[in-house]
Amino acid sequence: MARDLDALATMFPFEPKCYADTALPAEFVGHPFVALDYAAPVSYDPAGPVLLLPGSRKQAVGRIFPALVAWFTEFSRDRPNARAVVLYPSDDILAVLRAANPPPSVTLQKMGVPVAASAVLTSSGTMSMHCALAGIPGAIAYRANWITYVLGKMLVKIEYLGIANLLLNEPMYPEFLQAAATPAALAAQLRECVADGARRLHTTEQAARLRALLTVPANGTAADWLARHLG
């Protein structure tokens, strides 16, 4: 990249340090998810349904979604009126979701219409960032192929998997990976998210800090950066 590019604009504030040992000028210009004109796909509503977000890759969704349904079912045992919404990006993913035969309390909804939710169980991808910025309390749940998981543990040394957790350097969304992702553990997280005012307040405070971290810096937007380099 240093050979082929004149400069680099980054969306995350930690990224310029990754290029500090190169001759490539890298500058943080803010994240598009916090732009004033950005329409977020999710928002927080204490009376809303639970969001279940298994991801956008067929194999991962096929592995994670049945577990998400099991976790939500456990949570619903003492909440017969509880509802869940699953957002999916494509017809291919919809087919995978339908194959899991979710109960009537779980609605499958194509992305595009904003959803207000009271809590979320999510995989560790982009939608987890949307939920974190919206201040929706929740947890990350993920089950990878065991070989992938073991190799990842050996080769990748990071404290957190979720993007918001990495940026804040603390578990905004507690992470339940592999065998730790049990119905009892995730149902307990959902109960805390919808019933514990202190948990919701802490999530709101973390969302504000996350938004501040990703906000456009004083030296301008991505458009300003581009104008400087093209001028």
Report on the structure:
The protein has about 230 residues and is α/β, with parallel strands linked by helices. It contains nine helices and ten strands. The protein has two domains: about 1-30, no CATH class; about 40-215, 3-Layer(aba) Sandwich (Rossmann fold). The strands form three sheets. A six-stranded parallel β-sheet has the order 6-5-4-8-9-10, with helices on both faces. A two-stranded parallel ribbon has the order 1-2. Strands 3-7 form a two-stranded parallel ribbon. Helix 2 packs across helix 7 (about 185-195). The longest helix is centred in the N-terminal third of the chain and has 19 residues, at about 60-75. About 30% of the residues are buried. The mean pLDDT is about 90.
| Share of helix, binned | 40-55%
CATH class of the largest domain: Alpha Beta
Structural class by helix and strand composition: alpha/beta
Determine the number of helices (DSSP H or I, runs of at least 4 residues).
9
Shape: globular
Q: What would the CATH topology of the largest domain be?
A: Rossmann fold
CATH architecture of the largest domain: 3-Layer(aba) Sandwich
Radius of gyration: 19 Å
